[in-house]
User: Fold these one by one.
Assistant:
Number 1:
Amino acid sequence: MGKTVVQKILARASGRNEVEVGDVVEPRVDLAMSHENAALVINQFLEIYEGTGLEAELWDPDRVAIIFDHRVPAESSKTATNQKKIRDFVAAHRIRRFHDIRGDVGGICHQILPERGYVRPGAVVVGTDSHTTSHGALGAFAFGIGATEMASVWALGSVLNVQVPATLRVQVEGTFPEGVGPKDLILEVIGTLTAEGANFRVLEFHGETIRNMSTSGRLVLCNMSVEAGATAGIVPGDTETERYLREEAGVTDPITPVLPDDDAEYDSVVDINVSKLGPQIACPHTVDNVKPIDQVAGRSINQVVIGSCTNGRLDDLAVAAKIMKGQKVAANTRMLIFPASARIFQQALAKGYVKTFMEAGAVVMNSGCGPCLGIHEGALGDGEVALSTTNRNFKGRMGNPKSEVYLCSPAVAAASAVAGTITDPRGEH
Amino acid sequence: MATVVYEIGDDISTDVIYPGRYMATVLPTETPQFAFADDPVLNGKLTAGQVPPGGVIVAGSNFGCGSSREQAVSTLKGYDLVIVAKSVARIFLQNAINLGLGVVMCPTIEANEGDELEIGATEVINRTSAARFPIVPLPKSRQAIIDAGGLIAYTRQRLVAGR
């Protein structure tokens, strides 16, 4: 029987000829990523070594990446002290893939890893962040783990006792209508599968729509695969993967895509045609509460957010800038924009998007996770409603359990910011 | 025997179990006060010491969905709670096993607050209603970690064995 992408990656990383679904393996890790929660990883890492007489040493500092993005700049002395502790650790252990709070090389971890060429097709990537699934967009097997599990990876270089997951094939055909894109597709998939429909399984994306999609769009699909419960999302590497890594990430060494066999065994297949897909909205308070925009259009919104590891990339900002050019953010609505990395921020400056946004009345913030997880900026007031291009709308997500968050594409967010209500970017259709 | 101290629904995310705004708190010993911080009833019971160790929260499907934040596990572990849920999200389940939080996957569980449960290896018996509910075994891959007393102990054994 043929093998899926994740079976092939796990076989290679575990030193086996092949693996079957359900096999227990111990894959070597190619990249281990953390953000500010490295403070907890460090604590657990040092605890592992207590009483052993061994010196606490990373298995390979060059395979460890730490990116500050969740609370940048620090919102409190406690966070600042955590960040300082991490900086000291980074220096002592010679971690070179460290991205501090900077306007040149800083940004959100799930943008930094792709744009700096840290992720390759066929790699095993773990991150102390559930949206580590993003990196499947480059043909890697990438999944989220907890801080203690990362401490174990730092010590041993492998993930202990991984069970080879089954794979669900998502076959996508057709061409997106104007005003509709990858975010609408993945919301449609999550609404169909439900929030736990892919739990303990991998989503493998195929079809002409995927082949024609940019890496930026593929990152949206894989990023939000976890919202269907998936362990990982994977787009098998192809010419676009190579183009992205060569042209945008500056990778010069060989790139070898890992492709599934033609007779690979899938748990099930989901077929979707996007040619007639409309904008989709995830309504409060679960990501699988997805409705076509017609059912929620007209809802008043207090805050619009464009950004995050899901939709803060240059093409997202381009879509929004095109809609907002010469327009104004509605009087009772505020709009916050967070480019996904400092590099994207600079590109958006050069292309005039930032000027467009500011002239429209939007506030353009530094790169980072921003209000997505309700930590330190852009919190909502009691009873307020947000419309956001981010990835979660759980109760309390934006810092207030008495508020509501709707999730949408950048096109919907921009059109809605101008109208002050949830608005279809296609106009009268 | 364990007492059901609270019932909670489907898709309880880690944002509900441990709101993101408390994530600067990293040490496991610091986290318990923020368990279900936005649920005044449950948080009130916990912080007031009204929940005995070993108390059971009965949950619906997809418990612990969302973020990988380990605080969502350490905060419950701090009260020695046991979670009996219809199903559990992957990262939360792994974190629970790694940290030694009691989690039982019981797809058909029916229990009310105050019920007495007997949690065995293969089934949960509700002694109050006299009903029995089968348990989905944990992934076999995780048994070695549980047997070692958690992932820190397990990794330590591996390091020492590998010197």
Note: Chain A touches chain B through 57 residues (CB under 8 Å).
Number 2:
Amino acid sequence: MAFLRIVCVAALSGWAIGCSGPEPVELDTATRIGLRTPGSPLITLRVAFRAGSIEDPTGKNGLAALTALMVGRGGTETNTYDELATALYPWSASISAQSDKEVTTVVGHVHRDHLEPFYELFRDLIVSPGLADADFSRNKDFLTNAVVSTLRGGDDEELGKQALNALLYAGHPYEAPAGGTELGLAAITIDDVRAFHAEHYTASNVLVGVAGGYPAGFLTRFEEDVTSGLPPGAAGESPLPSPRALEGLEVLLVEKQAIATAISIGFPIDVTRADDDFFALLVAQSYFGEHRTFSGLLMNKMRGDRGLNYGDYAYIENFIQDGGTRLPAPSIPRRQQFFSIWIRPVPHANAHFALRQALWELERLVTSGLTSDDFDATREFLLNYSKLYVQTASRRLGYAMDSRFYDTEFFVDEIQARLPPLTVEDVNAAIQRHLRFDDLGIAIVTTDAEGFRERLLANEPSPPTYNAAVGDDILAEDEEILDYQLAINADRVQVLPVEEMFREVR
Amino acid sequence: MFNVRIAGLVVQTVMTLVCVTASTAFVAAQQADDIFPFPVSVFELDNGLKVVSVDYDSPGIVAYYTIVRAGSRNEVEPGFSGYAHFFEHMMFRGTEKYSTDAYNAVITRMGADSNAFTTDDWTAYHIVASSDALSTIIDIESDRFRNLKYSEEDFRTEAGAILGEYNLNFSNPVALLSERLHDRAFLFHPYKHTTLGFLEDVQDMPNHYDYSLEFYDRYYRPNNSIIVVVGDVDQAELERLVAESYGPWERGDFEPNIPVEPPQTRERTAEVTWPNPTLPFVMIGYHAPAFSDQTVDMPTLDVLSQLLFSETSPLYQRLVLDEQVVDLVTGGAVDQRDAPLFTIIARITDPSKVDYVRDAIVAEIDRLKVEPVDPDVLASTKSHMRYGFAMSLDNPSSIARTLSHYLQLTGDPETVNRVYRLYDAVTVENIMHFATVYFPDTNRTTVTLTQEAQ
């Protein structure tokens, strides 16, 4: 409130008619962010809690996610979930919640015609959720089915990514999927949910945000309602140890009936958006494997030149595609990040070659870096492309709240400011400092995992099979790649049937 | 054949550059009850290429969509399913002016978000970029639509990416269910196969370079295409650039002979198994009406899908909230040029309840044939649909995509407003009537998926 410059008292209560002069400016505070665009008919509300799966108690992996689901798909103290859904329906308004390793976010979307009645419900969900027995088994089963049915049996690419996460973060608070494990979810009671909520959904732990065509004064009201309605709680973040050091090429093979082989490769890095080197690595990542574009080297050489699969990309932080776009989703910030390569399913016969090529290209990136031309083109791409990140108010608000997590300026503004002074030498030096091709984790989802393990350990040549004749330059590269020796650590190769994945944290 | 046509176009370019004009241009007048809230302008070149632009306040950003009115519906020859989608990939394989690398370099320098998608009825190529880049976008897009040229080796290599896309999709049991349902429900119409195509056809694609050229020749024509531009653009400049760049594009006259699907006269069923861990699914399809912006049939079925499967529906509340025997149940039909399937899917949490869930869904449909829906519920449903539409239009790309959806159906930007007027006109009686007409047992195909026995 101290930050509010009151120009028109009437505007505070939403009655702006008859006022003259500029509207009140509600400045951001430590617990709120507002992005007001008065002309827009749409309004997005976000409430972020500094709580995620790293706070799950031992043996109860999935508690943070289930608590979030009980808020996002549950009722309030005065309205059942059914009543809430019935109220939202004619407005086509929505409320959802998502939980990652360190942050849980509740998101609401509404047309300005219905902001006031919507807000009453949204606020109650935040400060006085029902956490009712009636919603508990449904939501718990939903998360359990997501692990035992969808993840294990219906999405090989996501399975590969989660298997890589388990491999990289074994013994670390990040190890379990954010959605929980089969036995962890089974052990959770409704009292666990209520206790988790009481401990972590607190005023000292919250950041509220609103974007779009909300009325003057709304942000202040929203912030005050939330911070006064929640228990004060204790400030501070959970300790987070460093992930273990990988020893050579460590491999986790997941055995299942798969139509093709899905591969994810990676290793933890000590860089986040809060670090100067992030922006140099952002250029390297984009050059090497920008998500689902043909500006990335891996995409061009593995799909474009060779037709090995549908796509091949690289990342320097946890990446989730935002809906139908190809842009990074907000609300998944982390204090520790990892570099990864995503090789989309490859026919089994070419999987060994594809793995070799990705690592061969990575070695060349690390040892040779970018040329000046590569650097110039990639930097120009990112300076333009990052402007597209903020096409919707909702995503812009999400990024702004993530920037608060990292204690930086607005993410896109940072990209615009940090990239112009960069040099190719800066980028190549950052690659040298943070990327590598020796100590890596490799997750492989495939049929005949045991046979793949034997082929990896034998390190025999793995010539590819192509649909078409390829050029001499590609054949010359293939001669190197097909016999590229992978320093597999034989003591760190595991084969697990898919049914054993994510039963519990090992 | 392809090379001859390209040569012909070169000649045609020289001849027509001097006389390119936009044959028609107008700004669509807005009415008070229009659902589409932004001003729309339309102009058409002499060669039949229509350009629809939307004045939308998106400082510095433009969405540029090129619609080709060809999808898997147009794949009429046996053994050649999946070519509309395959061709979408080939459109990124370069021209003499812009090789693949050169095209990608331009896109990269622009920092554009560029991609494409294929459906049963249409294919869309979309770019979102700085509006400063509009002239560059028009240059590279007009070039590849007029002058695409790829080698047989490129074609065969791209077939690997297509197979890769098939592979990643078919690690999901829903893809198998949908493929089986359509194969069973349709006997002759190309909706029988999915957009990706039958696996055996996908695997055989590398051997049919000539057919891909034929597909391009048939459908990639100005009178079979529409350009949609949304954002911060100068209309006069847009018209000038489009006329210059697309004017020489040669009109086509191919009309596909799309088989007519006979009425289904008895219920069909199928069962499939999945080799990996999964809960069972049931998928049900009813033949629904083709899209029209003149009749209330399809809008009524859209309302029906809400009445049956929204979170506030009795069926959802019973199966998901109360009994908790499914964790997913939804259904509806996509607007399509020929009669599509109204498709319902449910994932069953208790493997012993597959028949129970299927019967509950059918019983709820039957109930809506005889019991009038509460007028308040109908009003709430219509409100949900109108606000849902309004809230989806929050950026240039979503606006372009929404408008493109209706344009590919009729070519008329006014269709979107007509359709929402039809939604408003749906009555309680319409619902009972069309539930009876389109949901008899004989029009139903049911496919169940269970986990393979270990």
Note: Confidence is low (pLDDT under 50) at residues 1-22 of chain B.
Number 3:
Amino acid sequence: MPSTLLEKVAGGDAAAVDECLGKYGGLVWSLARRFCPRHEDAEDAVQEVFIEIWRNAGRFDAQIASEATYITMIARRRLIDRFRRRKRAPDTTPIYEDPATSRAEHVEQMEVSDEVARARRFMQELRPQERDVLELSINHGLSQTEIAEATNLPLGTVKTHARRGLIRLRELMGVDNADELKEGSR
Amino acid sequence: MTDRWQTTERRLLELLADRAVFGMEGRERLEFAELLEIMPHADTECMERAAAVVLLARTELEPLPAGVADRVRAAALRHLRPPSQ
């Protein structure tokens, strides 16, 4: 019996597709806008990302990640592919448009907002240099060499900070998921 | 767990982190393939999920425009497999 939204999508539940779009459409759109400065590109990217989400919905495991994290991972993978095809740097500046949002969408997006807040808490747990290197690479699209030049760190040190930062984030996510599972079993 | 196993696991995590952030070079790809033969059940997406957290932390949520949602919904109906009977 499917229990998560993605499991329902994987089972072919059309209503779950609508629910998934309502809950995560804003997240995928926001990510696409950061990688695709042109509105039309972002629209195509969102469609590509969601097709990838439908294809991979059956692989989602609630024991190891939240749906928002899993969807962001798939979106990032697809958006990087597009970005490499086009060889353009992602524009990480959020572009605010404010079309009316329904109350239902607002409530659903609040859950995603909680995930964003959790991710921000995790980032604060990293050492400043680890955080900086990961920010420059993942959020600003800089290469290892570009980060070394921007930070005056040796190339190898840049890689070490990135590795340590991600390994630490993985540990934090593991602890957090374990806590959630314990709470869920109470 | 032996020291050798822990060293292998640690190195695999480093290479997965490299792949998730900067990508891997030829020599690293070969090493990665060798390590995966030793640890075939390793969670090879764990660092991509960690990288997703970095991206998520900087996300300013915007609503999906209605027209885009309609296009995605139509595409979804073409890709969804029918529910099992």
Note: The longest helix of chain A spans residues 155-185.
